[in-house]
Amino acid sequence: MAKANYVRVIIDRAIHRELDYAVPESLTGRIGVGSRVRVPFREKSALATVVALPEQTEAKGIRPIEAIIGDAPVLSEELLELARWIGTYAAQEFGDVVRAVIDATDRVAGRLSPAERAAMTRHFVATSRYEWMFWEMGHRREAWPV
Known about the structure:
CATH architecture of the largest domain: 3-Layer(aba) Sandwich
Oligomer: single chain
Number of domains: 2
Number of helices: 3
């Protein structure tokens, strides 16, 4: 484990942003990315997951973490990276936009002939395949072949 002075965490509840906390000397060297910790949050304690070990922080009013939960990190850095990626598509705002686009597409498709709807379906399948290839390439950190 790294000897971190600060941790950046995501609290299990309440907010959807990362917060910085100090690492007490007694816990230095026992904490890593993916570790579960208990932190002071508002007037209570909260469970959180460590997502980064910044060397410095610009945050004000830094408080120390209260405890490490467990002996080892429960999430790998790769799983945390995947969770961040999924989170960009799980946000309510993204869902609202997708629903609006689906509704508009359904309205347009309702006015088309069967042949035009079949063409629309073929184009949708082709572009979906390209989108999947794009995101898969990014996940695998490959270069786009164009």
